[in-house]
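Title: Prediction job returns without error message
Component: structure pipeline
Severity: low
Priority: P3
Assignee: unassigned

Description:
Job completed but the reporter wants confirmation the result is attached to the right record. Sequence as submitted:
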Amino acid sequence: MKNVHRILQLRPKNFYSIPIYIISYNRKNDLELLVNRLMNDGYKNINIIDNASKNIELLDYLKDVRKQGVKVFYMEHNYGHRVFWESHLFDDVIHNQYYVLTDPDVILIDECPANYVEVFLIYYKNMWILFVMVYRLPKYGGNIALGEQKGKK
């Protein structure tokens, strides 16, 4: 909980440099679509976590995309969707900074603005504040989270 509060206080200098991690396993076409969209929208810190893929087309693509500045982490076995936590390679990221974690089949619609990481972060911060207010509400004995004082309507 302390890390979450500390991280929420951070203000990224550049939302386009927040690391984006994509969990990948044998899905070249979807991965390529997502990476292209991220690059076209200006994101600079794109990371692919490959879960020991065997697909030759995907492995060739991973070699090529590295030449474009995308970092690729090759896992020795398939951790599944929990690779970000279970591999323990990303513990420092998890506990100390903002990041985006996604799968290659999450493709943004054309109408989505290019600054979606900033929009998501603002939404997350607002939702976290709402959660904290609602969670602590019984402690204060009233609807203080809704702006009412105890005993007044």
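Comment from assignee: result matches the submitted record. The radius of gyration is 19 Å.
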